[in-house]
Amino acid sequence: MRTGINHLFIPGPTNVPEPVRMAMNVTMQDHRAHDYGAPNLGIFRDLKTLFRTTDGHIMLFPGSGTAAWEAAITNTLSPGDRVLMARHGQFSMLWAQMAERLGLKVDLIDVPWGAAAPVSEFARRLAADPAGEIKAVFITHNETATGVASDVAALRRALDEAFHDALLFLDGVSSIGCIPFEMDAWGVDLAVTGSQKGMMMPPGLGILGVSQKALKASETATMRRAFFEFSDQLKNNETGYFPYTPPVQLLHALRAALDQMMAEGLDNVIARHRRLGAGVRAAVKAWGMDLCAESPAHYSDTVTAIRTPEGVDARDVIRIGYDRYNASFGSGLGPLAGKAFRIGHIGHCNEGMCLTAIALAELSMAAAGAKITFGSGVAAAQEVYASHTADAARIAAD
Predict the structure, then answer these.
(1) 3-state class of 140 per DSSP?
(2) pTM
């Protein structure tokens, strides 16, 4: 029998705040009633603020971020279209796999797991395509498997400098609502996220930002789609309705989650994630261990992937954490299985939760055979969090 809290330190699904959980505790509603649509208009409006878009349209699909991936591809591209993608982690790999399954011709750039999206190589290939055969470029903004964030603004510059008209697809499942993202300023045409990460909700909603350019492309794209048809969404969303039965309880949760994020302030949400990530990375450094992320310029502020020392199986660390300490850490995926574990610091998370994660990781790693000085990581993270708190206090005083 387990007692106390079950600690969830995976990068998704993430912890759900109590007001968000309670918001779902409502009786079922008539989703065709004359007064059902109006409240949903506020959800669409606030999601546009979250995505930093004024011109784009937000669509909500029952499903996960993967469903929104498929909606983005099938509505804007045609079978045989050439697209440019990089594979540098589990989720960029899965996105490329989906593109191939849907009949796209994928120009795939393989880079090491731990590297960011190869913007310079993207730029070279775009410059070598004056005829515009490449119809879309895909970038994984935050590779959850490796804890790596890529430079989307730099990719937009590469597209502009090559005078290339390719659509820009972005996987923002573990970034949107957590780290800086600018849909309009970066010229992102299709931005995908899901409800179970930064939105602090259960899984079940795929959230998609669609630019006017992408909507125009959907008018001539010939890939087959039915459930994910953009035009059906547009027609119904105008009045707050959906073309099929929506997940009513999840929409209540989304309203509560957006309220919480807006109350904190989006810039403050981003700053909090930056602070929490810095503390976890300081702990890893104090342990004398390495991150999967190769460059500090690309460290993720939502998830940290930690390489375990030689002879220490990361799967043992995860199993011990779960069995002994009621703590769930993220597993190493693909070639990182057994070599790394992950600490998620995304969504409904604060300093105390991160310090708990670090402390329980120390216990779990020691039990798995790692040489750990207990409290070393905790102390290093405390130094980071204390300095940030002091800085915030000084700013408030000024």
Answers:
(1) strand
(2) 0.95
